[in-house]
Amino acid sequence: MKAPPLRAEHGQSSIELVALLPLILIVGLAIMALLAARSAAGDAAAAAEAGAMALIQDGDAAAAARAALPAPARRRTEIDVDGRRVIVTVRPPAQPQFLADALASTASANAGPEPRP
């Protein structure tokens, strides 16, 4: 009498899918974190430029830079005005905090030389 054939591959694709799900999740989260970091870089550059333009027009550079940011990014932003230079640092919305700090973007814009009296 012959033994029935073994079904060694039955359910194999399900097991492979379950094994790959954590890897797919990690790659997806990494892509989202990098996209958030890129968005933060664009926000920082636009805010620094707006602050420098305000300095050129004798306005409040920090207020102009903050106004140029989207509302959710304003809480995660540091603005420093050093003479005629505006420096803006934006942290992306990432958890845990060390990841947001590691992906923070800093941009600066210069309003030109000091005006002559």
Please tell me about this protein's structure:
The protein is α+β, with helices and mostly antiparallel strands. It has one domain (13-110). The protein has four helices and three strands; from the N terminus they run αααββαβ. The chain has a three-stranded antiparallel beta sheet, covered by helices on one side. A hairpin with a 2-residue loop joins strand 1 and strand 2. Helix 1 runs antiparallel to helix 2. The longest helix is centred in the first third of the chain and has 45 residues, at 12-56.
Order of helices and strands: HHHEEHE
- Helix count equals 4
Shape, per Cα inertia axes:
rod-shaped
Sheet bearing the most strands, described? 3 strands, antiparallel
How much helicity do the residues have? Answer: 40-55%
Tell how many strands the DSSP assignment holds: 3
What descriptive keywords fit this protein?
alpha+beta; 3-stranded antiparallel beta sheet
Question: What's the helix and strand layout?
Answer:
Blueprint: H1 12-56, H2 61-67, H3 71-74, E1 77-82, E2 85-90, H4 97-102, E3 105-110
Antiparallel strand pairs: 1-2, 2-3
Helix pairs in contact: 1-2
Q: In a few lines, what is going on in this structure?
A:
The chain is 53% helix and 15% strand. It has helices at residues 12-56, 61-67, 71-74, 97-102; strands spanning 77-82, 85-90, 105-110.
